[in-house]
Design brief:
about 325 residues, Rossmann fold, 2 domains, four-stranded mixed sheet, about 40% helix
Length: about 325
C-alpha cells in the first residue's frame, strides 16, 4: 500500500505524514509549497512539487509510485479570504479536486480520503452537531468543502472508489515545535501574536447565550487529527481487503466533543505562557455561532478512534512552536 498525500508539507499534512510513516505506511507527498514547508518532512519521505490541477503530473506520480490510496489535504482554507475571492476558492478547491479525482479514477486507485471541515454545517441550532445535522455553510470556503464532499462521493460511486470525508473542528497544537502552524489565522496563534506584541487579546462578542458570554468551540489537537487520518486510511484498506472498491463512504466528525469558550481559552493561554493581559471585548463577527461542538460517537464506532490530548496540551505545544519562531516571545 502506498498513499499519496496532497498538501503533505503543510501544518496538518506534515502531521499526517508523521503519523502514517510511524505506523509503517508508505507515503508520497505532493505539494506546491505555496504554504507548505518542505523541511517539515523527514529526508526519506518522497515528495513531488506540483499543483493538484496538473492532472498529467498527477497521473505520472500515481503510476510511478504505484499509489493505492490518496489523502487529499491541499486546499485554500481562509474563511475571510474566501469571501473576498470566491472564484479563486472554487477554482482551487473544487477545480483542483476535480482534476485529482480524474487522475485517481483513471489510475484505478480505489481509496480516497478527503479533508473536509465543520464549516460545512454553518451555524446550526444543534448541540452537539452530528454528521446528520443539515449542512448550510456560511462562506465560500465552507461551500467548497461541502461541494468537495459531494464530488468525492459521486466519483466514488461512479468509479468504485471507497471514500472517507473527515469534518475537522478547530485544529491546534503541534506534535513537536518544528511542525507548528506558521499561520496566524486561528485563535491560539492570534492571541500569541497579540501578547508577544505587548497588546491585549481580543474577544469578538461577549454577549452570546453561553455561560460566560463568549463563543464555545470544539478543539482538536493536530496529533490526534493525524491519528484519525491513519485510522481512516486503515479502515479504507480493510474495506479493500474485504472486497472493497464499491464506492462506499464514511463521513465523520473529528473533534473532542467538548466545548471551550473563548474566555476560557484565553485564560488557559495566560496560565501556559505566564503572560496575563485582560482581553478587550469587541463587536461580534458576522456568522459566528454561539456554540459549535461536534459529536464524535460515529468516529469512535467506525474507526475505534477518540481524541486523547486536551486543550492544555494544545496550547502548551503551540506555544513551544511559537517561541521557536519568535525567540523574544517568552520575555513578552
Amino acid at each position: 500500500m502506498t498513499w499519496l498525500i496532497t498538501g503533505g508539507a503543510g501544518y496538518i499534512g506534515a502531521h499526517v505524514v508523521r503519523s502514517m510513516t510511524a505506523a509503517g505506511l508508505r507515503v508520497v507527498v505532493f505539494d506546491d509549497l505555496s504554504s507548505g514547508v518542505s523541511e517539515r518532512l523527514a529526508p526519506e519521505v518522497p515528495r513531488v512539487r506540483g499543483e493538484v490541477s496538473d492532472t498529467a503530473l498527477l497521473k505520472s506520480v500515481l503510476a510511478e509510485h504505484s499509489v493505492t490510496g490518496v489523502v487529499h489535504l491541499a486546499a485554500r482554507k481562509q474563511v475571510g479570504e474566501s469571501v473576498e475571492r470566491p472564484l479563486h476558492y472554487y477554482r482551487e478547491n473544487v477545480g483542483g479536486l476535480t482534476g485529482l479525482l480524474e487522475a485517481v479514477a483513471e489510475a484505478g486507485v480505489r481509496r480516497f480520503l478527503f479533508s473536509s471541515s465543520a464549516a460545512v454545517y454553518g451555524n446550526p441550532d444543534t448541540d452537539p452537531i452530528t454528521e446528520d445535522t443539515p449542512c448550510v455553510p456560511l462562506s465560500p470556503y465552507g461551500e467548497t468543502k461541502l461541494a468537495g464532499e459531494w464530488l468525492v462521493r459521486a466519483a466514488g460511486r461512479a468509479h468504485g472508489i471507497d471514500t472517507a470525508c473527515l469534518r475537522y473542528f478547530n485544529v491546534a497544537g503541534a506534535a513537536e515545535p518544528t511542525l507548528a502552524d506558521t499561520g496566524v489565522f486561528n485563535i491560539i496563534p492570534m492571541v500569541f501574536e497579540r501578547i508577544t506584541a505587548g497588546e491585549a487579546p481580543r474577544i469578538f462578542g461577549g454577549d452570546y447565550p453561553t455561560p460566560d458570554g463568549t463563543c464555545v468551540r470544539d478543539y482538536i489537537h493536530v496529533a490526534d487529527l493525524a491519528d484519525a487520518h491513519l485510522a481512516a486510511a486503515r479502515a479504507l484498506e480493510a474495506r479493500g481487503a474485504a472486497g472493497g472498491g464499491q464506492g462506499r463512504d464514511l463521513t465523520l466528525n473529528i473533534g473532542r466533543g467538548e466545548g471551550v469558550s473563548v474566555r476560557e481559552l484565553i485564560e488557559l493561554i495566560a496560565e501556559v505562557t505566564g503572560v496575563r493581559r485582560a482581553p478587550v471585548v469587541q463587536p461580534r463577527r458576522p456568522g459566528d455561532a454561539p456554540r459549535a461542538v461536534g459529536s464524535t460517537a460515529r468516529a469512535a464506532a467506525e474507526l475505534g478512534w477518540t481524541a486523547g490530548l486536551g486543550v492544555d496540551q494544545m496550547v502548551e505545544s503551540a506555544w513551544r512552536g511559537w517561541c521557536l519562531r519568535h525567540p523574544d516571545a517568552a520575555r513578552a
